[in-house]
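Hello,

Our lab assistant flagged a job as stuck in the queue for most of the afternoon. It eventually completed. Since we weren't sure the result was trustworthy after the delay, we are filing this so someone can double-check. Below is the sequence as submitted and the structure that was eventually returned. Let us know if re-running is recommended.
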Amino acid sequence: MIGAAILGAGAAGLMAGIRAGELGRKVALFEKNKRPGVKILMSGGTRCNITHDTDARGIVREYGPSGKFLHSPLAAFGIADTLELFHAEGVATKVEETGKIFPVSNKASDVLDALVRRLQRAGTPLYLEEPVTELRRSENGFDLQTPKRRLRAAKVLITTGGLSYPGSGTTGDGYGFAQQLGHRLIAPVPALVPIATGDQTVADLRGITLPDVGVQVLHDQTPLAQRRGSLLFAHFGLSGPVILDVSRAVSRRKDGAKLILEIDLWPEQTETQIGEYLRDESLRSGKKQLAQIVAPHLPRRVCELILQRASLPLDRKSAALTKEDRRGLVAQIKHWRLPIAGTLGFKKAEVTAGGVPLDEVDSRTMQSKLVPNLYFAGEILDLDGPIGGYNFQAAWSTGWLAGSSL
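-- returned structure --
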Protein backbone atom coordinates (compact mmCIF):
# COMPACT_ATOMS: atom_id res chain seq x y z
CA MET A 1 0.00 0.00 0.00
CA ILE A 2 1.15 3.53 -0.77
CA GLY A 3 0.27 6.65 1.16
CA ALA A 4 -1.53 8.37 -1.69
CA ALA A 5 -2.19 8.17 -5.42
CA ILE A 6 -2.48 11.36 -7.44
CA LEU A 7 -4.50 11.01 -10.64
CA GLY A 8 -3.41 13.42 -13.36
CA ALA A 9 -0.08 15.21 -13.85
CA GLY A 10 -1.33 18.61 -14.91
CA ALA A 11 -0.71 21.89 -13.08
CA ALA A 12 -2.49 20.87 -9.86
CA GLY A 13 -1.25 17.27 -9.87
CA LEU A 14 2.39 18.22 -10.40
CA MET A 15 2.24 20.80 -7.63
CA ALA A 16 0.57 18.32 -5.28
CA GLY A 17 3.21 15.72 -6.07
CA ILE A 18 5.97 18.23 -5.37
CA ARG A 19 4.53 19.29 -2.04
CA ALA A 20 3.69 15.78 -0.82
CA GLY A 21 7.11 14.46 -1.82
CA GLU A 22 8.93 17.29 -0.10
CA LEU A 23 6.99 16.51 3.07
CA GLY A 24 8.24 12.94 2.89
CA ARG A 25 4.90 11.39 1.98
CA LYS A 26 4.87 8.12 0.05
CA VAL A 27 2.86 9.13 -3.01
CA ALA A 28 2.72 8.24 -6.70
CA LEU A 29 1.56 10.35 -9.62
CA PHE A 30 -0.26 8.71 -12.54
CA GLU A 31 -0.67 10.33 -15.96
CA LYS A 32 -2.44 9.01 -19.07
CA ASN A 33 -0.29 10.94 -21.58
CA LYS A 34 3.24 10.26 -22.79
CA ARG A 35 4.37 13.37 -20.96
CA PRO A 36 3.02 15.43 -18.07
CA GLY A 37 1.58 18.93 -18.26
CA VAL A 38 0.46 18.85 -21.89
CA LYS A 39 -2.08 21.61 -21.27
CA ILE A 40 0.62 23.74 -19.63
CA LEU A 41 2.56 23.56 -22.89
CA MET A 42 -0.50 24.66 -24.89
CA SER A 43 -1.52 27.51 -22.59
CA GLY A 44 -1.06 31.20 -23.26
CA GLY A 45 -0.20 30.61 -26.89
CA THR A 46 2.56 28.21 -25.71
CA ARG A 47 3.90 30.93 -23.37
CA CYS A 48 2.06 29.88 -20.16
CA ASN A 49 0.50 32.74 -18.21
CA ILE A 50 1.81 31.56 -14.81
CA THR A 51 -0.19 33.91 -12.59
CA HIS A 52 -1.38 37.52 -12.28
CA ASP A 53 0.23 40.60 -10.78
CA THR A 54 -2.17 41.11 -7.87
CA ASP A 55 -2.66 39.86 -4.32
CA ALA A 56 -4.83 37.15 -2.77
CA ARG A 57 -7.75 39.54 -2.47
CA GLY A 58 -7.43 40.36 -6.16
CA ILE A 59 -7.61 36.68 -7.10
CA VAL A 60 -10.59 36.05 -4.81
CA ARG A 61 -12.43 39.10 -6.16
CA GLU A 62 -12.03 38.05 -9.80
CA TYR A 63 -13.62 34.68 -9.09
CA GLY A 64 -16.82 36.28 -7.83
CA PRO A 65 -19.01 34.30 -5.40
CA SER A 66 -16.85 31.18 -5.66
CA GLY A 67 -13.71 33.15 -4.82
CA LYS A 68 -14.11 32.65 -1.07
CA PHE A 69 -13.21 28.99 -1.61
CA LEU A 70 -9.67 30.12 -2.49
CA HIS A 71 -8.88 31.90 0.79
CA SER A 72 -7.20 28.88 2.39
CA PRO A 73 -5.41 27.62 -0.76
CA LEU A 74 -3.99 31.10 -1.41
CA ALA A 75 -2.94 31.44 2.22
CA ALA A 76 -1.09 28.13 1.88
CA PHE A 77 0.50 28.95 -1.48
CA GLY A 78 -0.03 32.41 -2.93
CA ILE A 79 1.25 34.45 -5.84
CA ALA A 80 4.56 35.27 -4.15
CA ASP A 81 5.09 31.57 -3.39
CA THR A 82 4.38 30.69 -7.00
CA LEU A 83 6.92 33.17 -8.29
CA GLU A 84 9.48 32.11 -5.69
CA LEU A 85 9.16 28.47 -6.74
CA PHE A 86 9.70 29.18 -10.42
CA HIS A 87 12.48 31.70 -9.81
CA ALA A 88 14.26 29.13 -7.65
CA GLU A 89 14.11 26.75 -10.60
CA GLY A 90 15.68 29.32 -12.92
CA VAL A 91 12.51 30.54 -14.61
CA ALA A 92 12.70 34.34 -14.71
CA THR A 93 9.32 36.04 -15.04
CA LYS A 94 7.98 39.32 -16.39
CA VAL A 95 4.82 41.32 -15.78
CA GLU A 96 3.07 42.51 -18.92
CA GLU A 97 0.96 45.63 -19.22
CA THR A 98 -2.23 43.65 -18.65
CA GLY A 99 -0.91 42.28 -15.33
CA LYS A 100 -0.30 38.83 -16.78
CA ILE A 101 2.91 37.17 -15.61
CA PHE A 102 4.85 35.08 -18.13
CA PRO A 103 8.29 33.48 -18.24
CA VAL A 104 10.81 35.91 -19.72
CA SER A 105 11.66 33.25 -22.28
CA ASN A 106 8.01 33.12 -23.45
CA LYS A 107 8.35 29.32 -23.34
CA ALA A 108 5.74 27.24 -21.55
CA SER A 109 8.21 24.37 -21.76
CA ASP A 110 10.44 26.19 -19.25
CA VAL A 111 7.55 26.23 -16.77
CA LEU A 112 6.87 22.52 -17.23
CA ASP A 113 10.55 21.58 -17.06
CA ALA A 114 10.87 23.45 -13.76
CA LEU A 115 7.95 21.53 -12.27
CA VAL A 116 9.27 18.17 -13.44
CA ARG A 117 12.74 18.90 -12.02
CA ARG A 118 11.24 19.87 -8.69
CA LEU A 119 9.04 16.76 -8.70
CA GLN A 120 12.04 14.53 -9.32
CA ARG A 121 13.98 16.13 -6.48
CA ALA A 122 10.95 15.65 -4.23
CA GLY A 123 11.20 11.94 -4.91
CA THR A 124 7.63 11.49 -6.15
CA PRO A 125 7.48 8.78 -8.84
CA LEU A 126 5.68 9.78 -12.06
CA TYR A 127 4.09 6.99 -14.08
CA LEU A 128 3.42 8.11 -17.65
CA GLU A 129 1.01 6.45 -20.09
CA GLU A 130 -0.62 4.83 -17.09
CA PRO A 131 -4.13 6.12 -16.40
CA VAL A 132 -6.13 4.90 -13.45
CA THR A 133 -9.03 3.01 -14.99
CA GLU A 134 -10.80 1.86 -11.83
CA LEU A 135 -11.10 3.48 -8.43
CA ARG A 136 -13.02 1.89 -5.58
CA ARG A 137 -13.22 2.38 -1.85
CA SER A 138 -11.88 -0.39 0.38
CA GLU A 139 -11.71 -0.98 4.10
CA ASN A 140 -8.32 0.68 4.44
CA GLY A 141 -8.54 3.26 1.69
CA PHE A 142 -8.86 2.75 -2.06
CA ASP A 143 -8.25 0.05 -4.65
CA LEU A 144 -6.94 1.31 -7.98
CA GLN A 145 -6.40 -0.38 -11.33
CA THR A 146 -4.16 0.83 -14.15
CA PRO A 147 -3.27 -0.99 -17.39
CA LYS A 148 -0.05 -2.08 -15.68
CA ARG A 149 -0.88 -2.78 -12.04
CA ARG A 150 -3.38 -3.02 -9.25
CA LEU A 151 -2.55 -1.11 -6.09
CA ARG A 152 -3.95 0.17 -2.85
CA ALA A 153 -3.65 3.69 -1.52
CA ALA A 154 -4.63 5.14 1.83
CA LYS A 155 -5.58 8.41 0.12
CA VAL A 156 -6.44 9.53 -3.41
CA LEU A 157 -6.19 13.00 -4.97
CA ILE A 158 -8.05 13.55 -8.25
CA THR A 159 -6.48 16.25 -10.44
CA THR A 160 -7.58 14.99 -13.85
CA GLY A 161 -8.79 18.39 -15.06
CA GLY A 162 -12.00 19.15 -16.93
CA LEU A 163 -13.04 18.86 -20.58
CA SER A 164 -11.28 21.83 -22.17
CA TYR A 165 -8.65 21.18 -24.86
CA PRO A 166 -9.52 17.44 -25.05
CA GLY A 167 -6.51 16.97 -27.33
CA SER A 168 -4.33 17.48 -24.27
CA GLY A 169 -5.93 14.50 -22.54
CA THR A 170 -8.50 16.36 -20.44
CA THR A 171 -11.48 14.18 -21.26
CA GLY A 172 -13.34 14.34 -17.96
CA ASP A 173 -12.04 11.04 -16.55
CA GLY A 174 -12.21 12.25 -12.97
CA TYR A 175 -15.89 13.18 -13.16
CA GLY A 176 -16.91 9.53 -13.36
CA PHE A 177 -14.78 8.64 -10.34
CA ALA A 178 -16.23 11.51 -8.33
CA GLN A 179 -19.79 10.44 -9.13
CA GLN A 180 -19.11 6.76 -8.43
CA LEU A 181 -17.84 7.76 -4.99
CA GLY A 182 -20.98 9.76 -4.23
CA HIS A 183 -20.33 13.30 -5.40
CA ARG A 184 -22.71 15.40 -7.44
CA LEU A 185 -21.52 17.04 -10.62
CA ILE A 186 -22.24 20.57 -11.80
CA ALA A 187 -22.68 20.10 -15.55
CA PRO A 188 -19.37 21.00 -17.23
CA VAL A 189 -19.51 23.70 -19.91
CA PRO A 190 -16.81 25.48 -21.94
CA ALA A 191 -15.37 28.67 -20.42
CA LEU A 192 -12.82 31.15 -21.78
CA VAL A 193 -13.93 30.16 -25.26
CA PRO A 194 -14.52 32.18 -28.46
CA ILE A 195 -18.09 33.10 -29.35
CA ALA A 196 -19.75 32.40 -32.71
CA THR A 197 -22.11 34.98 -34.18
CA GLY A 198 -23.05 33.70 -37.61
CA ASP A 199 -23.00 37.33 -38.77
CA GLN A 200 -21.26 37.83 -42.12
CA THR A 201 -20.48 41.47 -41.36
CA VAL A 202 -18.35 40.28 -38.43
CA ALA A 203 -16.58 37.74 -40.64
CA ASP A 204 -15.71 40.58 -43.02
CA LEU A 205 -13.82 42.27 -40.16
CA ARG A 206 -11.70 39.21 -39.36
CA GLY A 207 -8.19 40.00 -38.22
CA ILE A 208 -9.09 43.39 -36.74
CA THR A 209 -8.38 43.93 -33.04
CA LEU A 210 -10.07 46.57 -30.89
CA PRO A 211 -7.83 47.11 -27.82
CA ASP A 212 -10.50 48.54 -25.51
CA VAL A 213 -14.21 47.84 -25.78
CA GLY A 214 -17.01 47.04 -23.36
CA VAL A 215 -19.15 43.96 -23.97
CA GLN A 216 -22.32 42.57 -22.43
CA VAL A 217 -24.15 39.29 -22.91
CA LEU A 218 -27.87 40.07 -22.84
CA HIS A 219 -30.93 37.88 -22.48
CA ASP A 220 -34.26 39.71 -22.80
CA GLN A 221 -32.40 42.98 -22.11
CA THR A 222 -30.96 41.53 -18.87
CA PRO A 223 -27.14 41.54 -18.63
CA LEU A 224 -25.78 38.06 -17.85
CA ALA A 225 -22.11 39.10 -17.99
CA GLN A 226 -20.15 42.22 -18.77
CA ARG A 227 -16.47 42.99 -19.20
CA ARG A 228 -14.07 45.48 -20.72
CA GLY A 229 -10.92 44.70 -22.67
CA SER A 230 -9.49 43.67 -26.04
CA LEU A 231 -11.64 42.10 -28.78
CA LEU A 232 -10.59 40.23 -31.93
CA PHE A 233 -12.81 39.72 -34.97
CA ALA A 234 -12.54 36.24 -36.53
CA HIS A 235 -14.12 34.37 -39.43
CA PHE A 236 -16.46 32.53 -37.03
CA GLY A 237 -17.30 35.49 -34.80
CA LEU A 238 -15.42 37.01 -31.89
CA SER A 239 -12.45 36.22 -29.69
CA GLY A 240 -9.95 38.10 -27.56
CA PRO A 241 -9.74 38.43 -23.75
CA VAL A 242 -12.97 40.40 -23.28
CA ILE A 243 -14.97 37.81 -25.25
CA LEU A 244 -13.40 34.84 -23.48
CA ASP A 245 -14.23 36.37 -20.11
CA VAL A 246 -17.98 36.60 -20.84
CA SER A 247 -18.25 33.30 -22.72
CA ARG A 248 -19.22 31.25 -19.66
CA ALA A 249 -22.59 33.07 -19.61
CA VAL A 250 -23.19 31.87 -23.18
CA SER A 251 -22.18 28.27 -22.43
CA ARG A 252 -24.45 28.13 -19.38
CA ARG A 253 -27.60 28.80 -21.41
CA LYS A 254 -29.14 26.17 -23.65
CA ASP A 255 -31.01 28.81 -25.65
CA GLY A 256 -27.78 30.44 -26.82
CA ALA A 257 -29.39 31.60 -30.06
CA LYS A 258 -31.60 33.94 -28.04
CA LEU A 259 -28.65 35.74 -26.51
CA ILE A 260 -27.36 39.07 -27.74
CA LEU A 261 -23.84 40.45 -27.53
CA GLU A 262 -23.72 44.21 -27.10
CA ILE A 263 -20.45 46.01 -27.86
CA ASP A 264 -19.54 49.48 -26.60
CA LEU A 265 -16.92 50.71 -29.08
CA TRP A 266 -16.00 53.85 -27.09
CA PRO A 267 -16.26 52.76 -23.45
CA GLU A 268 -14.24 55.69 -22.15
CA GLN A 269 -16.87 58.17 -23.37
CA THR A 270 -20.54 58.57 -22.45
CA GLU A 271 -23.25 58.88 -25.07
CA THR A 272 -23.54 62.59 -24.30
CA GLN A 273 -19.81 63.13 -24.72
CA ILE A 274 -19.73 61.30 -28.06
CA GLY A 275 -22.75 63.24 -29.27
CA GLU A 276 -21.06 66.52 -28.35
CA TYR A 277 -17.85 65.42 -30.09
CA LEU A 278 -19.74 64.62 -33.30
CA ARG A 279 -21.62 67.92 -33.13
CA ASP A 280 -18.45 69.96 -32.55
CA GLU A 281 -16.54 68.16 -35.30
CA SER A 282 -19.36 68.65 -37.78
CA LEU A 283 -19.24 72.39 -37.08
CA ARG A 284 -15.44 72.58 -37.15
CA SER A 285 -14.75 70.23 -40.06
CA GLY A 286 -17.96 70.22 -42.03
CA LYS A 287 -16.28 69.35 -45.32
CA LYS A 288 -14.86 66.13 -43.95
CA GLN A 289 -16.68 62.89 -44.52
CA LEU A 290 -18.23 61.30 -41.44
CA ALA A 291 -15.86 58.35 -41.75
CA GLN A 292 -12.89 60.70 -41.33
CA ILE A 293 -14.32 62.08 -38.10
CA VAL A 294 -15.01 58.68 -36.60
CA ALA A 295 -11.92 56.94 -38.01
CA PRO A 296 -9.41 58.33 -35.46
CA HIS A 297 -11.27 56.34 -32.80
CA LEU A 298 -12.00 53.16 -34.76
CA PRO A 299 -10.42 51.11 -37.56
CA ARG A 300 -11.69 52.30 -40.92
CA ARG A 301 -13.57 49.08 -41.75
CA VAL A 302 -15.33 49.10 -38.39
CA CYS A 303 -16.15 52.76 -38.85
CA GLU A 304 -17.72 52.11 -42.25
CA LEU A 305 -19.80 49.25 -40.87
CA ILE A 306 -21.09 51.40 -38.01
CA LEU A 307 -22.11 54.13 -40.47
CA GLN A 308 -23.96 51.57 -42.58
CA ARG A 309 -25.77 50.26 -39.50
CA ALA A 310 -26.77 53.83 -38.68
CA SER A 311 -28.15 54.17 -42.24
CA LEU A 312 -25.64 56.90 -43.05
CA PRO A 313 -23.95 57.07 -46.49
CA LEU A 314 -20.20 56.57 -46.37
CA ASP A 315 -19.65 59.77 -48.36
CA ARG A 316 -21.92 61.89 -46.14
CA LYS A 317 -20.22 65.17 -45.19
CA SER A 318 -20.12 65.83 -41.47
CA ALA A 319 -21.80 69.20 -41.93
CA ALA A 320 -24.93 67.35 -43.07
CA LEU A 321 -25.16 65.38 -39.83
CA THR A 322 -28.51 66.12 -38.22
CA LYS A 323 -29.35 65.74 -34.56
CA GLU A 324 -31.27 62.58 -35.36
CA ASP A 325 -28.31 61.26 -37.37
CA ARG A 326 -26.02 61.89 -34.41
CA ARG A 327 -28.34 60.08 -32.07
CA GLY A 328 -28.47 57.04 -34.38
CA LEU A 329 -24.69 56.98 -34.83
CA VAL A 330 -24.06 57.26 -31.10
CA ALA A 331 -26.48 54.38 -30.48
CA GLN A 332 -24.52 52.17 -32.88
CA ILE A 333 -21.18 53.14 -31.33
CA LYS A 334 -22.32 52.48 -27.76
CA HIS A 335 -24.81 49.64 -28.33
CA TRP A 336 -23.71 47.58 -31.33
CA ARG A 337 -25.74 44.39 -30.99
CA LEU A 338 -25.00 41.00 -32.53
CA PRO A 339 -26.92 37.72 -32.25
CA ILE A 340 -24.99 34.95 -30.50
CA ALA A 341 -25.01 31.54 -32.17
CA GLY A 342 -23.07 29.78 -29.40
CA THR A 343 -19.42 29.07 -28.59
CA LEU A 344 -16.68 27.03 -30.25
CA GLY A 345 -17.03 24.40 -27.53
CA PHE A 346 -14.54 22.45 -25.45
CA LYS A 347 -12.07 22.04 -28.31
CA LYS A 348 -11.30 25.76 -28.16
CA ALA A 349 -12.09 26.42 -24.48
CA GLU A 350 -9.18 27.27 -22.21
CA VAL A 351 -10.95 26.06 -19.06
CA THR A 352 -14.03 24.17 -17.94
CA ALA A 353 -16.81 25.66 -15.84
CA GLY A 354 -18.64 23.16 -13.67
CA GLY A 355 -17.37 19.99 -12.02
CA VAL A 356 -17.26 18.82 -8.40
CA PRO A 357 -19.35 21.26 -6.30
CA LEU A 358 -17.30 23.44 -3.96
CA ASP A 359 -19.70 22.84 -1.08
CA GLU A 360 -18.71 19.17 -1.14
CA VAL A 361 -15.00 19.91 -0.64
CA ASP A 362 -13.26 21.28 2.48
CA SER A 363 -11.31 24.29 1.24
CA ARG A 364 -8.98 24.09 4.28
CA THR A 365 -7.61 20.71 3.18
CA MET A 366 -9.11 19.99 -0.28
CA GLN A 367 -10.59 16.79 1.21
CA SER A 368 -14.02 15.56 0.20
CA LYS A 369 -16.70 16.23 2.78
CA LEU A 370 -18.44 13.04 1.67
CA VAL A 371 -15.61 10.52 1.32
CA PRO A 372 -12.78 10.44 3.89
CA ASN A 373 -9.25 10.52 2.40
CA LEU A 374 -10.49 11.55 -1.06
CA TYR A 375 -9.18 14.90 -2.31
CA PHE A 376 -9.73 17.18 -5.30
CA ALA A 377 -7.67 20.01 -6.79
CA GLY A 378 -7.49 22.03 -9.97
CA GLU A 379 -9.94 22.22 -12.84
CA ILE A 380 -12.03 19.23 -11.79
CA LEU A 381 -13.59 21.58 -9.22
CA ASP A 382 -16.46 23.90 -10.12
CA LEU A 383 -14.05 26.80 -10.00
CA ASP A 384 -13.19 28.86 -13.08
CA GLY A 385 -11.80 32.37 -13.24
CA PRO A 386 -11.15 35.01 -15.91
CA ILE A 387 -8.30 35.06 -18.37
CA GLY A 388 -4.98 36.33 -17.05
CA GLY A 389 -3.30 33.58 -15.03
CA TYR A 390 -6.06 33.28 -12.44
CA ASN A 391 -6.89 29.69 -13.30
CA PHE A 392 -3.27 28.58 -13.12
CA GLN A 393 -2.92 30.24 -9.73
CA ALA A 394 -5.97 28.36 -8.48
CA ALA A 395 -4.42 25.12 -9.76
CA TRP A 396 -1.04 25.81 -8.12
CA SER A 397 -2.68 26.79 -4.82
CA THR A 398 -5.26 24.01 -4.55
CA GLY A 399 -2.69 21.44 -5.68
CA TRP A 400 -0.15 22.60 -3.09
CA LEU A 401 -2.73 22.55 -0.29
CA ALA A 402 -3.96 19.10 -1.30
CA GLY A 403 -0.38 17.84 -1.41
CA SER A 404 0.13 19.18 2.11
CA SER A 405 -2.89 17.15 3.27
CA LEU A 406 -1.93 13.80 1.74
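-- support follow-up --
The delay was a queue issue, not a problem with the job. The result is valid. The longest helix spans residues 390-405. The chain has a mean pLDDT of 94.
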